Amino acid sequence: MKIVVAIGGSILIQKYDAKMFKAYADILKSLSEDNEIFVVVGGGKPARDYISVVRDLGCGEAQSDAIGIEVTRINAQLLLSALGDSAYQKVPVNFKEALEYSAFGKIIVMGGTEPAHSTDAVSAILAEYVKADLLINLTSVDGMYDKDPNKFEDAQLIKEITASDMMEFIKGKDVKAGTYEFFDMTAIQMIKRSSLDTVIANGNNPENLVKIMNGEDIGTKIISN
């Protein structure tokens, strides 16, 4: 299979150590033996911290985005270091480069691409661009909930949702640089128009990536219609 895996920056950068980079590198290496793997990594708290400084300097959202993108690419470099020879050792800056680098038969790792596109959106666009069979989005919660599970104890996990219903759910949400919304509209639009099989799951346990690949019923499945 051809798979795009989005890993939130908050998953990889938790305590500023190598633990999660190493754990994901081991799993990605194993999966790459039988699958073609593309990875998109987010910026996490470091990106949001830098974006806060940029805003304090009076800069606009495009400049804030540009700084956040640089942080995602640093995280991508760190994961490349953990993957070693199993990955193509250059971070693509756009989708064309990602596809070109994949010709070498190694794992591709990238971060952001351009202002106004979150790494969720980047992963969905990349999946469409390379004609992926599956998009896996690994975040800090177990999947999509009807309300923020970090704020509401009665939040319910949504096991399955259509792309159309998800678009309605996130309509009007804040899309400023560095904001931590669950998914953005661009990502859902890509999933819908490409009829892209998508699973959202908790990335704090790297083994969940293996479980998804083994067909286990975890997280939230997005149906394309």
Protein model, in words:
With 225 residues, this protein is α/β, with parallel strands linked by helices. The protein has helices spanning 9-12, 19-31, 44-56, 61-83, 95-101, 119-129, 163-170, 185-194, 207-213; strands at 2-7, 36-41, 108-110, 134-139, 144-145, 157-158, 160-162, 198-202, 220-223. The longest helix has 23 residues, at 61-83. The two termini are 22 Å apart.
What's the topology here?
Blueprint: E1 2-7, H1 9-12, H2 19-31, E2 36-41, H3 44-56, H4 61-83, H5 95-101, E3 108-110, H6 119-129, E4 134-139, E5 144-145, E6 157-158, E7 160-162, H7 163-170, H8 185-194, E8 198-202, H9 207-213, E9 220-223
Parallel strand pairs: 1-2, 1-4, 2-3, 4-8, 7-9
Antiparallel strand pairs: 5-6, 8-9
Helix pairs in contact: 2-4, 3-4, 6-8, 7-8
How many strand units?
9
Order of helices and strands: EHHEHHHEHEEEEHHEHE
Largest sheet: 7 strands, mixed
Count of alpha/pi helices: 9
Rg from C-alpha positions?
16 Å
- Spatial arrangement of strands, main beta sheet: 3-2-1-4-8-9-7
SSE class: alpha/beta
Shape: globular
Q: Give the overall pLDDT as a whole number.
A: 89
Our measurement of the CA-to-CA distance between the termini, rounded to an integer number of angstroms, reads 22 Å
Summarize the amount of helix as a percent range.
40-55%
Strand content: 15-25%
Model regions low in confidence, pLDDT < 50 over at least 5 residues: 175-180
Annotation keywords:
single chain; about 220 residues; alpha/beta; 7-stranded mixed beta sheet; two-stranded antiparallel ribbon; globular
